[in-house]
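Re: FE2/S2 (inorganic) cluster structure - here you go.
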Amino acid sequence: MTTDPVLFNDWHPVAQSTRIVAGAITATDLLDTRIALWRDGAGNVHAWEDRCPHRGTRLSMGAVDNDTLRCAYHGWRFDGEGRCRHIPALPALEPDRLKARVGTFHALEKYGMVWVCIGSPSESGPPRFPEFADERLRKVWCGPYEVQGSGPRIVENFLDMAHFAFVHDGILGVPEQAAIADYTVETFDDADYGSGVWAKQCRAWQPQASKAATGGSDIDYTYRVVRPLTAILTKHPPGGIVEAIALLPQPLTETSTRVWIIMALDDFTSDDDALRAFQDTIFLQDLPILESQSPARLPLLPGAEVSVACDRMSLAYRGYLKRQNLRYGVLRDD
Ligand code: FES
Ligand SMILES: [Fe+2]
């Protein structure tokens, strides 16, 4: 189990809400911890340690039975609080004399996702994503994408514009226009997004900036890092509604990550599959790059990699992770 207090006490996305249905158990992983997700008859989501206290079997192999969870091995039954209430091999035992208890974690639902905190959650809850509440925007859930790479490498790639012309040639950039115009990087602290670092006035010429684009356009972007593993990109079309894409990595281990993306778009003509397919194309172009990066953990060591002026958002992100004292998925010398 991770000892990183930052991620341990933070909320992480682990599933799309619609996929966690009453009566079924879903196994997932978070920060090297096996988790069993299930929904009771009242609609509440539970996130438990996926390990039976009797003999360590994965509880997700068992079944939901009348708002209790039954282990597949010896049939012990656990109530909604994780307390053992019945042992079939000793049916006469009074439930109150049963001491076994499953480890339980904090779980809630927001933005159509299940979020889990395996430590002590802060008051602030999951990351802020104000565009999600904008009813003028259509919400589309993409992924999840499985990456053999660390969460911080994935976030840094999301903030990186200089790769568009090469990795996303013909879609988000073209090699003939690879130059990155000046942009501004600052820290922020506001009521809408909380605090973090942001890059604003990012401009890029993109042949196909989105599924709805009918030709090339000059795009005005803002990137915000709102948590160590959460970044939000907003696009500012002249005279149009601000659209957003939230990158929500679920750290499975230090070097393997499941990536969820939620888009809030001003596009009500394309169908969901087409919008997701566009994002799939982009992400699958990034995937081999991400999985090739060495070391897999993002180096926060001075001089570990060569950076240039247009990498200043990446450097601001690395500085933010250092200040947040992040230890999981990064390399550092302190
Ligand atoms: S291991 Fe779960 S009931 Fe025995
Ligand atoms: Fe990319």
